[in-house]
Amino acid sequence: MTAQDFRKIALSLPETEERQHMDHPDFRVVGKILATLGYPDKTRAMVKLSPEQQHYFSRDYPNAFIPLKGAWGRRGATSVVLKAAGKDVLREAIQAAWRFNAPKRLIHLTSNRKNEFVNT
User: Fold this and answer.
1) What residue ranges define each of the domains in the chain, with the CATH number in brackets?
2) Quick one: what percent of the chain has pLDDT higher than 70?
């Protein structure tokens, strides 16, 4: 996966926009950060998952998903090694981060759609 692939997947999600945070791009849904690119370096990204989702992604794909240290990591912030993450699993992780961070009204609106998210 590349940073551009990551960006394309993130921006395909409803009401998601790209902004800047601490000198690197982040992706937000209704103002809440769900993912970042280029932190701590250009080979990585971060997805903000639930702690339970973080557990399963890091267990099933330990070379691609690594919990961050400290309080952020305990709350689900998960580093992604872009080259180690396949496109399908990365799409799944970004969508999970979107669902975890999106407001309930938005999740409800999208949950009734047949194709909930755009395939990229």
Assistant:
1) 3-108 (3.90.1150.30)
2) 91
